[in-house]
Amino acid sequence: MLPKIRGSTWLQVLITLLIPTAYAHSWVEQLMVIGPNGTFVGAPGYPRGNVLRTSPGFGDPTMTYLIPPNGREIGSVILPTDRLCKPTQQTRNQTQGSPRLQASPGAAIALRFQENGHVTLPWNQPGKPKNRGTVYVYGTTEPTDNETLLAVHKVWNRDGTGGDKRGVLLSVQNFDDGRCYQINNGNISEARQSEFPHVADKLMGADLWCQQDIALPSNISVGKPYTLYWVWDWPTLPHIDPTLPNGKPEIYTTCIDVDVIDNKNTSDTLSTGYVNDQSLNNAAIPSQFAGLYNSGGSKGPAASSTVSPTVTSPTPTTTTSFLQSTQPSGFLTITVTETAYVTPSSCSLAPQHTYGPPRDPDLGLSRRHRRPQRLPLRVGIRRHYPVQH
């Protein structure tokens, strides 16, 4: 018998599940404050310029923002002029029915997004990192309308001393939070449905959304919005996809404002601990939640504070192409950062499992089932490409 869903119907859920997602990409769809026991509390918040899935005219392009864009004449390179935010998100604006999240200084919050098959159907996209890309969250009290990606991404740091020093790196996590899934007939999805069951609800349907749990700086000013930049770095690695021998960068962003309010209840994180066996519909990721408070939160000046970003192992795999300059000879000089992996000889392999395709047995497994991770060795390579004038 199908479980009942309050405030919705199975027809609505089925319609949501039947929407094609093979080529869907991801963005932050909702934010929630996390209570001291790991449970979501209060009202949800939404990104700038949000378009709800129930809105007339909704489609992925209304919310996704790809850098570099498809069809760029000089190829898949990121330009210094590429804006960090989607045009509809370059200024502080909220659409009707999609208010800002309200949270107090130091509050833990969850940024929620759908995996859309990127986690549970990884073989559909050859050459992607095992962690399904890396998600970064940057924070600032001084956003600009013309913010560029290269002025922020991998420039702002946890100490607030990077770049123009207007912001900080708050969090670095794997896109795959270790338990999220889309309902499909793939082995990864089926394994996770068994390991992480939940009752279908109006928001997620039968899927279980991914999330990135972060802590706001503890000293930001009450009464002033705090801006978050969510960056999903999802490159295609070189030498895997025959159509992309050099790989390519692929980045998606969401820009968000949070109303900072004076509410001790949302930041009282020491009075209790994570409650196990709670409903996964409204629960933080235990490992991310623990990391937030074991690190003691973030302290220091609001715009240049010393922040301890939360990091999930393994170290992210990254391939990034940046346009550096145009040489007089008519060539572009592009720096490509590639990551090689070495498996330490002292590590013993975990038992084999059959989740996912044989070529990648670790995909989709919970942390306790995974093989030991390999250590990254990054190599910077400068390549020259001809440019037509």
UniProtKB/TrEMBL annotation:
It comes from the Eukaryota. Residues 296-324, 346-367 are annotated as: Disordered. Residues 1-24 form the signal peptide. The lineage of its organism: Eukaryota, Fungi, Dikarya, Ascomycota, Pezizomycotina. Keywords: Signal. The keyword Disulfide bond does not apply. This is DUF7492 domain-containing protein. Residues 23-285 form the DUF7492 domain. InterPro entries: DUF7492 (IPR055915). Residues 304-324 have a biased composition (Low complexity).
